[in-house]
């Protein structure tokens, strides 16, 4: 088969289209066919008396059966004889030609059904299929024109009808192509609109999350600032009486008291020193955090956090152990922020464990990272809560703010690390913080 002929026949094959367009076009075709059957029934039985009503009604009944099957399949979302468009065109050409033959020949009103057939074909199939259908209709019409007696032929009327068929074929095909192109453009625009809408929604969600995190960060900073002011005020108000008491004790010691009194004064001096040390730790922890980055010792960070955590309610009723190996590589970061990370994790572990519970802070090195684990044997975390655990304002505590773990994640990510959690309800929880160690060149330069 030659190239042009092969390409012509390939153009007759049905092309894949949008199922929504196929069903919409099928809906129009079904309605046109039902309209034609109703009008045909009226013409055959109440129109002119030139036709033979019995064969006309038989042909219309066959058309009714064909259209009924077409309608049932359409209701089920299928296209009748979708892969055989020319078979439908040939059957329609034969159907219309027989109606014209048994009614009044080439001048029968049923000849207008050729136009309906061409319109149905144009909105459903390719232009080539439509022009082949036009050829079948012209052949059908010409065949019954030739079969008419010589006295019933009207060449002018015959040629005019053929011209109209060709003109309607071109017009219907052009309009169908225009509608399909407009529909395709509309689908492309709708797809782009949906994509832009999805991107906009994603951006809005990102901005909303960033706003919530910023608000949470501001709230946490305000809370820490208020705590710092309170701690400084307590240290000042308590420090003045302690200084006076310390001065009185020193004055009594200078008066050469007896051994019993000296022992008691020494005990008071020791307790005063202890109170002053606690106040210094409290003030140190509550002072405005520095954002200066530098080398940070992991052991110093853990020791400072545990020294403050021991004053937390319930801290003395828990067994807190630290497993920190020697010669850990230093980190690069903000010391106060890293202390806050460990401190918050230990406080959460204290809240999660009961009296006599065990909390372990373990540190290991993994290649170029340091992994810090805070392990408790407490109640564990509900799997449904784990997804929301690091979001701002999410808390399961009665009087919690929902900012502790959020701040931890924020600080760890700012230091180039990651934080994760493993938990089993009723068996405890492990928080894991991974942070990069200081570059070797920086360690050597500092040493």
From TrEMBL:
<keyword id="KW-0808">Transferase</keyword>
<protein>
    <recommendedName>
        <fullName>histidine kinase</fullName>
        <ecNumber>2.7.13.3</ecNumber>
    </recommendedName>
</protein>
<keyword id="KW-0812">Transmembrane</keyword>
<dbReference type="InterPro" id="IPR005467">
    <property type="entry name" value="His_kinase_dom"/>
</dbReference>
<dbReference type="Pfam" id="PF00512">
    <property type="entry name" value="HisKA"/>
</dbReference>
<feature type="transmembrane region" description="Helical">
    <location>
        <begin position="156"/>
        <end position="179"/>
    </location>
</feature>
<feature type="transmembrane region" description="Helical">
    <location>
        <begin position="114"/>
        <end position="144"/>
    </location>
</feature>
<dbReference type="InterPro" id="IPR004358">
    <property type="entry name" value="Sig_transdc_His_kin-like_C"/>
</dbReference>
<keyword id="KW-0597">Phosphoprotein</keyword>
<dbReference type="Pfam" id="PF02518">
    <property type="entry name" value="HATPase_c"/>
</dbReference>
<dbReference type="InterPro" id="IPR036890">
    <property type="entry name" value="HATPase_C_sf"/>
</dbReference>
<keyword id="KW-0472">Membrane</keyword>
<dbReference type="GO" id="GO:0005524">
    <property type="term" value="F:ATP binding"/>
</dbReference>
<keyword id="KW-0175">Coiled coil</keyword>
<keyword id="KW-0418">Kinase</keyword>
<dbReference type="InterPro" id="IPR036097">
    <property type="entry name" value="HisK_dim/P_sf"/>
</dbReference>
<keyword id="KW-0902">Two-component regulatory system</keyword>
<dbReference type="GO" id="GO:0000155">
    <property type="term" value="F:phosphorelay sensor kinase activity"/>
</dbReference>
<dbReference type="InterPro" id="IPR003594">
    <property type="entry name" value="HATPase_dom"/>
</dbReference>
<feature type="coiled-coil region">
    <location>
        <begin position="179"/>
        <end position="217"/>
    </location>
</feature>
<keyword id="KW-0067">ATP-binding</keyword>
<feature type="transmembrane region" description="Helical">
    <location>
        <begin position="54"/>
        <end position="72"/>
    </location>
</feature>
<dbReference type="InterPro" id="IPR003661">
    <property type="entry name" value="HisK_dim/P_dom"/>
</dbReference>
<keyword id="KW-1133">Transmembrane helix</keyword>
<feature type="domain" description="Histidine kinase">
    <location>
        <begin position="233"/>
        <end position="439"/>
    </location>
</feature>
<keyword id="KW-0547">Nucleotide-binding</keyword>
<feature type="transmembrane region" description="Helical">
    <location>
        <begin position="84"/>
        <end position="102"/>
    </location>
</feature>
């Amino acid at each position: 088969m030659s190239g042009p002929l092969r390409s012509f026949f390939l153009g007759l094959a049905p092309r894949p289209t949008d199922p929504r367009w196929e069903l919409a076009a099928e809906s129009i075709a079904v309605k046109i066919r039902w309209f034609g059957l109703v009008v045909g029934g009226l013409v055959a039985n109440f129109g002119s008396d030139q036709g033979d009503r019995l064969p006309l009604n038989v042909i219309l009944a066959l058309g009714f059966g064909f259209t009924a099957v077409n309608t049932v399949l359409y209701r089920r979302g299928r296209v009748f004889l979708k892969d055989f468009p020319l078979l439908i065109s040939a059957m329609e050409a034969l159907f219309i030609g027989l109606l014209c033959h048994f009614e009044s020949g080439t001048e029968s009103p049923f000849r207008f059904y050729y136009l309906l057939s061409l319109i149905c074909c144009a909105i459903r199939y390719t232009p080539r299929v439509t022009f082949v259908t036009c050829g079948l209709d012209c052949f059908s019409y010409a065949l019954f024109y030739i079969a008419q007696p010589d006295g019933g032929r009207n060449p002018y009327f015959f040629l005019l009808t053929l011209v109209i068929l060709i003109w309607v074929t071109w017009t219907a095909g052009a309009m169908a192509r225009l509608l399909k192109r407009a529909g395709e453009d509309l689908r492309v625009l709708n797809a782009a609109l949906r994509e832009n809408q999805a991107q906009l929604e994603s951006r809005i969600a990102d901005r909303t999350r960033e706003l919530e995190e910023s608000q949470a960060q501001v709230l946490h900073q305000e809370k820490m600032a208020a705590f710092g002011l309170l701690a400084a005020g307590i240290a000042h108000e308590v420090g003045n009486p302690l200084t006076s008491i310390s001065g009185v004790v020193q004055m009594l010691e200078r008066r050469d008291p007896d051994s019993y009194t000296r022992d008691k004064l020494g005990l008071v001096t020791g307790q005063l020193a202890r109170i002053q040390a606690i106040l210094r730790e409290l003030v140190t922890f509550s002072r405005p955090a520095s954002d200066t980055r530098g080398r940070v010792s992991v052991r110093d960070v853990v020791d400072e956090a545990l020294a403050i955590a021991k004053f937390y309610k319930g801290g003395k009723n828990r067994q807190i152990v630290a497993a920190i190996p020697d010669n850990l590589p230093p980190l690069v970061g903000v010391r106060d922020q890293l202390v806050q990370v460990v401190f918050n994790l230990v406080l959460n572990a204290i809240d999660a464990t009961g009296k006599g519970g065990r909390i372990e802070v373990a540190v290991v090195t993994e290649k170029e990272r340091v992994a810090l684990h805070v392990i408790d044997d407490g109640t564990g975390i509900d799997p449904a809560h784990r997804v929301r655990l690091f979001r701002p304002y999410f808390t399961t505590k009665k009087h919690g703010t929902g900012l502790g773990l959020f701040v931890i994640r924020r600080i760890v990510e700012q230091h180039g690390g990651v934080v994760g959690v493993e938990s089993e309800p009723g068996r405890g929880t492990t928080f894991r913080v991974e942070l990069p160690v200081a570059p070797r060149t920086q360690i050597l330069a500092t040493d």
